[in-house]
Design a protein that fits this description.
5 helices; 434 Repressor (Amino-terminal Domain); alpha+beta; 105 residues; two-stranded antiparallel sheet; single chain
């Protein structure tokens, strides 16, 4: 078996972590007033926001979701934080470039 097909090299979040991220996305959607309200506040489609219920809030949308929902960033995406208070910087990465750090307040 080559490295390309090695199951040990594929990252898969634990099932509990996935459930927690989906539940956090659901809380953010509810706190913002629903799928349509959050989509308008964030500047994306209601379909995209609805998809967050099945996955998680994308890191690049986190600052806008925090503003719209009133929740702390670490409550929405605890996997991005290594601070105890849940405030500070979050590492954002995309498929189009290197990770960058932004302040989330």
């Amino acid at each position: 078996m080559g490295l390309r097909n090695s199951p040990s090299l594929i990252y898969r979040p634990a099932m509990d972590d996935q459930r927690n991220l989906r539940a956090a996305a659901d809380r953010a959607i509810q706190a913002a007033g629903g799928t349509v309200a959050l989509a308008r506040a964030v500047g994306t489609s209601k379909q995209a926001v609805a998809n967050w219920r099945r996955s998680r809030v994308p890191a690049e949308r986190l600052p806008a979701v925090v503003r719209a929902s009133g929740l702390e960033a670490a409550a929405i995406r605890p996997d991005l934080y290594d601070t105890e208070d849940g405030k500070g910087e979050v590492s954002l990465s995309s498929n189009h470039g290197p990770a960058r750090r932004v302040a989330v307040t």
